[in-house]
Design a protein that fits this description.
The protein is of the alpha+beta class. It is built from 13 helices and 21 strands. The protein folds into two domains: 220 residues, no CATH class; 118 residues, no CATH class. It has a six-stranded mixed sheet. It comes from Dentiscutata heterogama.
Length: 439
C-alpha cells in the first residue's frame, strides 16, 4: 500500500509539472519572431513584432476529405487557362496533406505563379557544379522561438504553432506559408493533360514537395558569416537581430531530429556546445564573427560543414525511423543539401517526395507506383514519421472514417485547470520546474 501511495504521488508530480508547462509555455508577454518574406531566399529573415495574444478557438468536424488549407493565389501571367490549372494543382496537393495531417486550424498559403526570372532575377541555381533552372520554392512565412519540452529554445514554424491549441500565443502572420513558382521556360504537366511528355514535370508533385517545406521541413543550418560557406551553424541571434549585442545559436525544430550517422550525436548537442557566447556583448556582428571563428567552437561548425558534403553522414531520427539526408552534393548547396531526403537512398521508394530533384516525364502517381504503391500515397512512411515527430497529428490510415473533434479552449478552462492544480498541490510538496516562454 505504501508503494502505491508513493507511485501515485510521483505520478501526480509528473502530471502537474507537464500540465503546468503546457499551460504556461506562452506565459510571457512577447517572444522572438522572424518573417521569411522571400521563399527563394530561405535564410533571409527579418525580425518582427509578435506580442502575445489571447483568443478562443473552436475545433469541430475535421473530416478526412476537408481541405484545411486557405489558398491566396496570385497569377502574374495572362494565360488564365494555365492559371486555373496551377490553382487546381495547389488544391489537389493541399487535399493530400489534409488527408495526412489532422489540422486543428487552417494553414494559410500565399502563393504566386509568375516569371521569377524577370521579377526576382532568380533564373538558375547550381547543384554539384551543374546549372539548373529554378522552378520555385516555399517556406514557413514566420518562425517563433518557443521553449521546447527538453528545455531548449527552438524556432517553430507558425503552421505548427497553430496546431498546438494554445489560446495564448505570439501574434500570427497573415500567412503560414509563402510560395512562388516559375511560369516561364518550364513545361508543367497537369492531370487533365492526358499522357505526360518526356520534357514535362508534374506540377502537383512540385507543389506538394514545397508545401511540406512550408510546414517545417527546413533546417536552420547555414553559414551566416561567410560566402562561400566554410562552416554551418543554426540561426545566429545577434546577426539576424542586429539591434542586440548578445549572440546565440538557435536551431529550427527540424534540427532537433538531426543526428550524425557515424557517432549518433544529435545536432542539438553540437549546438549546445557551440552556444557559449551569450554572456559576452559584441559591438558589431563582425566582431562576433572574428571571435567565433578563432574559438574552439568553430571546429564544430566546420565539422558539420564537412559532413554536409559526405554521403550518408547526417540523418533524421523520427521515432523508430531513420531518414538519411542529402549530403552528397559537392560543393555544398544551401538550397538542396541537408534539407532533403537522400536522392540516392530514396529514389524508387515510397519516400521519393522530399528528394532535392525531380525527373521529367514522370507523374506523381507513377512515382507512387514505382515506390511500391504505398497505401498512403505520396506521403511516404518516413515522411509521415517525421511530420509526427515534428509535432503534427498524423492520421493513422487512409480509411474514410470521419474524425470528429469538438473542443473549446477558453480562459474559463484555464481557470478550472489552475484550480485543479492548486488543489492537487495541497497534497504534494515536491517542487517542479515550469518552463516559461522565452523573451
Amino acid at each position: 500500500m505504501k508503494k502505491l501511495i508513493i507511485w501515485t504521488k510521483s505520478f501526480l508530480i509528473f502530471f502537474i509539472c507537464n500540465i503546468a508547462n503546457i499551460v504556461l509555455i506562452f506565459a510571457n508577454d512577447s517572444t522572438l519572431c522572424f518573417d521569411r518574406p522571400d521563399p527563394l531566399k530561405p535564410y533571409y529573415l527579418e525580425r518582427v513584432s509578435c506580442p502575445m495574444v489571447t483568443e478562443n478557438e473552436t475545433y469541430s468536424n475535421l473530416k478526412r476529405d476537408t481541405n484545411m488549407f486557405n489558398l491566396t493565389f496570385i497569377c502574374g501571367i495572362n494565360d488564365q487557362t494555365l492559371c486555373k490549372k496551377v490553382k487546381s494543382a495547389f488544391e489537389s496537393a493541399e487535399k493530400i496533406l489534409s488527408d495526412t495531417i489532422l489540422f486543428k486550424q487552417t494553414v494559410n498559403v500565399n502563393a504566386t505563379f509568375t516569371n521569377i526570372c524577370a521579377a526576382y532575377g532568380a533564373c538558375n541555381t547550381v547543384n554539384s557544379g551543374i546549372e539548373t533552372q529554378v522552378i520555385g520554392g516555399a517556406a514557413p512565412s514566420r518562425v517563433m522561438m518557443l521553449r521546447d519540452d527538453d528545455g531548449v529554445n527552438r524556432f517553430y514554424p507558425q503552421s505548427l504553432v497553430k496546431q498546438l491549441g494554445n489560446t495564448n500565443h505570439p501574434k500570427y502572420s497573415d500567412y503560414d506559408i509563402n510560395a512562388i513558382f516559375n511560369s516561364e521556360n518550364v513545361s508543367y504537366w497537369f492531370k487533365e493533360d492526358g499522357n505526360i511528355k518526356y520534357n514535362q514535370i508534374d506540377m502537383e508533385m512540385v507543389i506538394l514537395h514545397e508545401l511540406v517545406h512550408g510546414l517545417g521541413f527546413i533546417s536552420s543550418l547555414n553559414d551566416y558569416m561567410n560566402d562561400p560557406p566554410k562552416g554551418l551553424t543554426p540561426y545566429v541571434i545577434g546577426i539576424l537581430n542586429t539591434t542586440g549585442t548578445n549572440y546565440h545559436f538557435i536551431e529550427d525544430m527540424f534540427d532537433k531530429l538531426m543526428s550524425v550517422v557515424s557517432t549518433g550525436q544529435s545536432v542539438s548537442d553540437i549546438v549546445k556546445q557551440m552556444d557559449v557566447f551569450g554572456d559576452v556583448q559584441y559591438v558589431t556582428p563582425e566582431s562576433f564573427t572574428i571571435t567565433f571563428e578563432s574559438s574552439p567552437q568553430y571546429k564544430l561548425a566546420t565539422d558539420l560543414f564537412s559532413k554536409a558534403t559526405i554521403p550518408n553522414s547526417l540523418s533524421l531520427l523520427s521515432g523508430d525511423d531513420t531518414i538519411i539526408l542529402e549530403t552528397s552534393l559537392t560543393p555544398y548547396n544551401y538550397k538542396s543539401s541537408i534539407g532533403h531526403f537522400s536522392y540516392q537512398e530514396y529514389s524508387n521508394t515510397s519516400d521519393f517526395l522530399m528528394r532535392y530533384s525531380v525527373e521529367h516525364g514522370v507523374t506523381l502517381q507513377q512515382y507512387v507506383a514505382m515506390g511500391g504503391n504505398y497505401a498512403n500515397g505520396p506521403i511516404g512512411p518516413k515522411l509521415r514519421a517525421f511530420l509526427k515527430s515534428l509535432g503534427y497529428t498524423v492520421r493513422d490510415s487512409t480509411s474514410g472514417t470521419q474524425i470528429r473533434i469538438s473542443t473549446i479552449i477558453s480562459k474559463t478552462k484555464l481557470i478550472i485547470l489552475s484550480m485543479l492544480i492548486i488543489s492537487l498541490m495541497n497534497f504534494i510538496t515536491s517542487p517542479c520546474e515550469i518552463n516559461g516562454f522565452p523573451l
